[in-house]
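User: If you would, consider this record:
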Amino acid sequence: MTTTLHGYGISATIPQGFEARITHLDPVDPLSSRTHAAAPMIGTEITRPFIHIANVPLPAQRDTFGGGVVETLGANHLFLALVEYGPECVGTKLFSPLGLPRSVSARSFSRTRLQRIVPGQSGHQSFFTHNGRAFCLYIVAGSYARVGTMVHQVNRILRSITISANVGS
């Protein structure tokens, strides 16, 4: 059984055994003491919506790139984040590849492509523009040794994702 998650012009089919959430953070007032643990800061800008998909429970408080989640991954676990950046990133060299990757290979994972190095884990990261919106795809596999047997799950999720043109979020 699968479910479909959608919001902010992004949708994904979530396989059984996975949990997913789409989050959109309100801007943080720099003069306020209010902060968001999951707030991805770029200078003083906050990124736009992001989706988290994992085959472990997603805690209410988690960082944009999986802090609070990736530390809990076991050998057969996956975490995927699709993080949108602002329109100022569209057309830049980093985000120049066009289109959401629909598949990744085990070779695209590395122990050094992690936001935070956790022994045994490996990660994949790619930046792209899709329908005029800039994104980072970040994936963590709980076991570098088992990533080859897990990429089919990742690819099934990637093929199910749709991203509409800018929704003005």
About this structure: The chain is about 10% helix and 30% strand. Strands lie at 3-7, 10-14, 19-23, 41-42, 45-46, 50-54, 78-85, 122-130, 133-141, 162-163. Confidence is low (pLDDT under 50) at residues 29-45.
